[in-house]
Automatic annotation (TrEMBL):
The name this protein goes by in its record: Peptidase S54 rhomboid domain-containing protein
Location, primary (coarse class): membrane
Domain of life assignment: Eukaryota
Compartmental location: Membrane
């Protein structure tokens, strides 16, 4: 059963709060122009290499911020699957890899191929979100499927349609994010997806790297211990109920409302 909120997903919660706060702060202070990258003049002329390290720390407009925040919320399932330490290590690794890979590809491949027309890389953590989306696509199965009818027959019967799963909503949000500022946003999304899959297939160096364990408190162990305690209590109640024989119908109804059924 899918849990609502950020239970067992503190890294996703912290990432969401950070992106919202940094984007709002950049807008209030009017410093959004420091976060995007233009190969010319930022890198080749002014040598502003520091932009490579900060361009994924905030979004430039409200639409991208909305879609990014919704994507982070839905991708929290990956953190519950990986565990907090592994997911934080994955995001940190992809952050460093995509920070370098996207501007490098733009400067050395896509800008020359487009004769200088493709020169802009929009700000925002779109690459690491698509790296997480690659894990979501590969590891999370669909819960249910539904069919969208494209037409109906003349006799009223269902015509051809498109079968989609519940994961369609996450892909729709991510597609909107990738199309916000093309072609730069498309490049960011593609680089993130490729880095995410390469990390999953162990094609990148040091892909087994993890953040030191001492930075994380053992919150999962406490949750498992609480779950085991509740299961033991449930087994004790079940044994006592079986030993007492069948209960009257009125007692069963009252126990159900008291939470003891």
């Amino acid at each position: 059963m899918q849990q609502s909120g950020f239970r067992s997903a503190p890294v996703s919660q912290a990432l969401l709060y950070f992106i919202v706060a940094s984007s709002l702060l950049a807008s209030i202070l009017d410093i959004k122009h420091y976060f995007h990258i233009q190969i010319i003049p930022h890198l080749w002329v002014y040598r502003q290499v520091w932009r490579i390290f900060i361009w994924q720390t905030c979004y430039a407009n409200a639409g991208e911020l909305l879609f990014g925040a919704l994507a982070i919320y839905h991708l929290r399932t990956i953190e519950r699957l990986f565990g907090t330490r592994k997911y934080a290590s994955f995001l940190a690794y992809c952050f460093v890899a995509t920070n370098v890979a996207a501007p490098l590809l733009l400067a050395t491949v896509f800008r020359p191929l487009t004769l200088g027309r493709m020169n802009y890389l929009p700000p925002g953590p779109t690459p690491i979100l698509f790296a997480a989306l690659a894990q979501y696509h590969a590891a999370i199965p669909g819960v249910y499927k539904f069919r969208l009818l494209t037409s109906t027959n003349s006799n009223g019967e269902d015509g051809p349609g498109i079968t989609l799963s519940d994961k369609f909503y996450v892909y729709l949000l991510s597609t909107q994010l990738a199309l916000c500022q093309p072609p730069g946003s498309l490049l960011s999304a593609a680089v993130g997806w490729l880095v995410g899959y390469a990390w999953r297939m162990d094609l990148l160096p040091k892909s087994k790297w993890r953040i030191p364990k001492w930075l994380f408190k053992d919150s999962q162990g406490a949750e498992f211990e609480n779950l085991r305690r509740r299961l033991r209590e449930g087994e004790g109640v079940a044994d006592a109920t079986q030993g007492a024989g069948p209960r009257p119908l009125v007692r069963q109804i009252l126990d159900q409302f008291r939470g003891a059924f």
